[in-house]
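Appendix B. Chain record.
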Amino acid sequence: MSHLIAIGLLFAALQGGAVTTSIEESFDYQYSDIEGDSAQDIADWFSARQFGGTIGETMTNLSTYYRYEIRGGQCVLTDITAYLTITQTMPRWVDEDDGPRRVRRQWNTFMTNLQTHEDGHVEIARRGAAIVLDRLSQTAPAESCDALGQALDAESRDLWQRLQTSQRDYDRATEHGRTQGAFIEFNSRR
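Structure tokens predicted for this chain:
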């Protein structure tokens, strides 16, 4: 059976039917600094973000670049490159070394769990980019390159919307990381 698959792939390659795909990823870390050396300072920072603000955030963007050519009177896709841009913004307690040991322990546990949650968003984006490439590479030839480009753009937009839905579903399922331990509660003691 594996010989038949290899022969089929070789035949497709010889006919020029294989679409070359690649993903280029850029990853940028950013920080939102928290100043102060007490639990109250951290609690105040969190409180200021309670309505509409974010504590940790992973933003992703996916753009695709296609190359195609005319073969046998049809426009055929030859190459697809997906550019995945990831920006992860995390809180950074700049005065952590001056904070109480108990608060530092809580902070470190919180940060580990928040990183786990945000890394889940990264994995969804990476899997999504691979799915986009796979699905787009299967796009049938079209009568014109304009028609092929429109079909690719429409499919790419649809897949991107599904990816965004997966990100929202992940946040709902994890309560924005709360079920993964990405929360911290302090009493008002300094």
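Further analysis of this model is presented in Appendix C.
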